[in-house]
Amino acid sequence: MRPFTYTGTTNRNEALKAFTTTSHYLSGGTNLVDLMKEHVEQPDQLIHVKNLQYNGISKNKDGSYTIGAMRSNADTANHKDIRLYYPLLSMAMLSAATAQIRNMATNGGNLLQRTRCPYFFETSMPCNKREPESGCGALNGVNDQHAIFGYSDNCIATHPSDMCVALAAIGATVEVQKVDGGSRKIDLEDFHRLPGDKPEKDSNLEPGELITHIHLAKPELSNHYAYVKIRERSSYAFALVSVAAGFQIEDEKISKIGLAMGGVAHKPWKLIEAEEFLLGKKPIESNFGKAAELAMKDAKPFEGNRYKVPMGKNAIVRALMQANNIGE
Amino acid sequence: MKTKNATGIGNAIDRVEGHLKVTGEATYASEFKVENKAYGQGINSTIAKGEIIGIDTSEAEKLKGVLKIITYKNAEKLKTFDKERPVLATDSIAPVLQSNKVHYYGEYVGFVVAETFEQAQYAASLVKLKYKEDATARFILGQNKDKAYNPSEESDYERGNLKKGFSEADAIIEQTYNTPIEHQHPMELHATIASWNNGKVLVYASQQIVEDAVISISGTFQIPKKDVRVVAKYVGGGFGSKLNVERHLIMAVMASKMVGRPVQATVTRSQMFTNTGLRQSNIQVVKLGAKKTGELTGLLHETLAYTSTTQEFQEPCGSMSKMMYNVANAAVSERLVPLNLQQPFSMRAPGEATGSFALECAMDELAWKLKMDPVQFRIKNDTQEDLSQEKPFSSRLLIECLTIGADEFGWNKRQQKPRANKKGNWLIGYGVSAAARAAPFNETHAKVLLDLTNDTVTATLQMDATDIGTGSYTILAQTLSECLNVPLEQVVVELGDSDYPITPGSGGSWGAASYCNGAKSACDYAIAALKKNRNVPNDEDVSIAELLKMNQITSYESQSLAKPDSEFKKHSIFSFGANFTEVWVDKDTGIYKIKRMVNVGSAGKILNPKTAYGQVIGGLTMGAGMVIAEQTKVEPNFGNFITRSFADYHVPVNLDMANVDVIFLPEEDKIVNQMGIKGIGELGITSVAASIANAIFNATGKRMRDLPITPEKLLMAEVEDGVTV
């Protein structure tokens, strides 16, 4: 690992002031430290922000909740209000990584975790995300875990988070602190980027901006929900394909719905057409099947990941069926 | 053999070394306190084939703490291979940094020595190498079948008349089974501390076979064996990867000489993928023919595997096919393709683990074709004679393993038709497989020191045997307790030092049988000698304390050896087993759960049921790992392994593992060795993969012939012809 300096602080302004272009904020470190060991990330300075006071879970006037960026994934997922009002989020978060990693990892860090594309991790391989203009090794290499939506010739990597898939289904806003002291809010849908011609940028955060809170949308999808994660072993594996589904039923029809997929794109993939199709429809398997067809119709798989299309369809139907049958 | 006391053999006592291990007091290779130690870090090549044409160490040399950077330019001259692609053995030389040639991605091209581990690691990343790449590198076995060669005369085996055998068959199946590259990955990283003193070198190392490490080091450096001492007190798992000396050890020995200080080298987990051995990929073809009534008439098992371009290793995938069934006409062959990948070597039941997957899946396929119960099909083809060696088995309880296992498992509830047992989204399947693993017993020396103080005898055993996590300390303490009839508290076991008598080490399932018989022989020798001195009849029961007193001595040293006798050589010696598995497969997602397993083994005397269960459960887990997800993926354009950490090389997690029942059949085998011990180390893993794959067929009607069976493969696979969906 390349030597670096460490700045620990409990003061937000000190953290912002310490930031330089070769610095990195360190929170749980479950991803960043690995990348530093592999020489993928080589910051001059780590600014430890985990002890800043952004670790609350609080209820807002409209019934929605705000979760602190420095709160651990484990604490968030197991919080009684999150379990009660955002069970989909809790379920997705608990399907991620291992108990040990969830204890360390934070909500802000989870939003910023980087792709597990093997070409990104190995510094002797080409990777436009790690080293712009070096090429994409996965395009004509091993691409079984890669994107089927929204990729570019520059990058076909996927976003690895489970939490973000649930957030995309539920709806959320990310609040960040700017270096100049002000703050701004970014809709979750606009937070992560598609690779385009700048795959080195995972998100729309500006340098030095610090995530402080995640504001969750009002808890309207807590009656019917499911997170289906298909992976190569029962724990500690990234999703081949995952689906977060939540809906409300009124008069035997779907009145509100949130649907998103993981493991298929450079960002959590909202299934907007499928959502629109299902609104006002009966929650029955034939409708779920049609929604799944709609959701996957524009998929463009590679040689190695063709399986993601049928697997994705089946996972969507399964998640919706499981959500519908909840409590039965 | 009857157990004399509560701590003798056969008792499920707690491990004598358990407390040391769980409290961190057991010293593994990198944990010995050595003064003035420096740290070394290997540099790995980033091309797969070519030459180094430039080395820039300037930036690394400027770093604080850097003591030496060794490359082929300044490395000590070592013994190198005197022929092209010699056969790799456990005592082979291990030359490194001897030329500018690169043979595979990740090969060591340099070694940095620094004051601290961190400095060495960082400096290693700053050494800049320029390469001239050779574009003729080859990485993928299936794409290079035309480069296959026949490694030796023994690679072809045939009995009877295969053509005739198949012509007599009413049903024939012929299928190809693929297994990927896998890695051993013991918990303890390979590590060593080497220090020179007056022309002699002391090496703390993580090795399975101490004596072979001594031979390898002395051969590589061309120094006398007596100037090399290897100490391996505790080894945190080996699984074959620590059978031979790996290059980090050689580089540490070399570096220690060059910097005049002890040097420690611990490989990283990612170097455990590139520099400490692996199981190569195999393509196996099995053809089986049988009569309507179930008798096998022909068996063909052909294996294509890769070896490296520098050394040769052949995993004997056909070994079980040669001896398992009563089939008069059989042929087994093995071919190798040299590839620009790391040198393969033994891993977790080399030959049987992979070979049994092909053979036992093929048996299931043929049973299905014959519409025969697969348990009955195997029983029908049982043999008490090893047809390949033309010798009787010393003992073989395979039929008992199968029938008792079937009872315990509830096999009679199995539906013969696939997809007939459903529950919600789940398809439920039952699978069976049979297993055999050679139970070797090798010449073993041991020393026993008896000390009489205040009427109490303390017995100390010394041998260069290793404990690779299996509990050698415990079973040897039990052996002494048994043979000398003293309580466990009066026994001291000292292992893992080349200053002690020579044993075959741990590996190949020969450890327990060899070690315990060696120790017994030293005990028996002591008792016999002490009795003889005082004219005590051999069959008279006198305590060891009394014997020492009668001899008017307070200490006695006995050294002896145990080795196979003529009866052993007249027989074929194997342990046998049967695996039963229930899987639940999700009909839409390809996810499956191994719900339960029953494993029945017949493996002679079980020395300690606790440690034995542990070993078999470990084997079953590794077998499950072969099926669930274990695979090292090769990048097809660059030749590197893209699975390079435990995050992407998937071993089973607790949730993946089934409810496991392990049953050992009582088996008294007087032929194998005096104590009746057969190996169990590798029996556990053998055939597990087939039992799971066969259960998946029974559940889904899909034949999964490529390991691992991942959800994506299972989802995309077609249901076999003739299965109703």
Structural overview:
The complex is a heterodimer of chains A (328) and B (725). Chain A is of the alpha+beta class. Among the domains of chain A are: 5-50, Uridine Diphospho-n-acetylenolpyruvylglucosamine Reductase, domain 2, CATH 3.30.43; 224-324, Enolase-like, domain 1. Chain A is 29% helix and 20% strand. In chain A, the strands form three sheets. Chain A has a five-stranded antiparallel beta sheet with strand order 4-5-8-6-7. In chain A, strands 9-10-11-12 form a four-stranded antiparallel beta sheet, with helices on both faces. Chain A has a three-stranded parallel beta sheet with strand order 1-3-2, with no helix packed on it. The mean pLDDT of chain A is 97. Chain B folds into three domains: 18-27 and 442-563, Aldehyde oxidase/xanthine dehydrogenase, molybdopterin binding domain (Aldehyde Oxidoreductase, domain 4, 2-Layer Sandwich), CATH 3.30.365.10; 32-135 and 187-237 and 242-274, Aldehyde oxidase/xanthine dehydrogenase, a/b hammerhead (Aldehyde Oxidoreductase, domain 3, Alpha-Beta Complex), CATH 3.90.1170; 282-440 and 570-716, Aldehyde Oxidoreductase, domain 4, CATH 3.30.365.10. Chain B has 725 residues and is α+β, with helices and mostly antiparallel strands. In chain B, α8 (319-323) links the parallel β14 (296-308) and β15. Chain B has 18 helices and 26 strands. The chains are: A alpha+beta (328), B alpha+beta (725). Chain A binds chain B through residues 1-3, 34, 39, 116, 118-119, 121-122, 124-125, 137, 140-142, 144, 228, 230-237, 240, 306-308, 310-311, 314-315, 317-318, and chain B through 46, 118, 121-122, 125, 425, 588-591, 593, 628-629, 633, 635-638, 640, 642-645, 647-648, 650, 652-656, 708, 710-713, 715-716.
Largest pleated sheet of chain B: 7 strands, mixed
- Name of the CATH homologous superfamily of the largest domain in chain B: Aldehyde oxidase/xanthine dehydrogenase, molybdopterin binding domain
Strand order of the largest sheet of chain A: 4-5-8-6-7
Helix proportion of chain B = 25-40%
Rounded mean pLDDT of chain A is 97
Q: Could you name the CATH class of the domain at 224-324 in chain A?
A: Alpha Beta
Pairing-aware structural class of the strands and helices of chain A? Answer: alpha+beta
Low-confidence stretches of chain B: none
From the 3D structure, determine the CATH topology of the largest domain in chain B. Aldehyde Oxidoreductase, domain 4
Order of helices and strands of chain A: EHEHEEEHHHHHHHEEHEEEEEHHH
CATH superfamily of the domain at 224-324 in chain A: CO dehydrogenase flavoprotein, C-terminal domain
Total DSSP helices of chain B: 18
Strand tally of chain A, please?
12
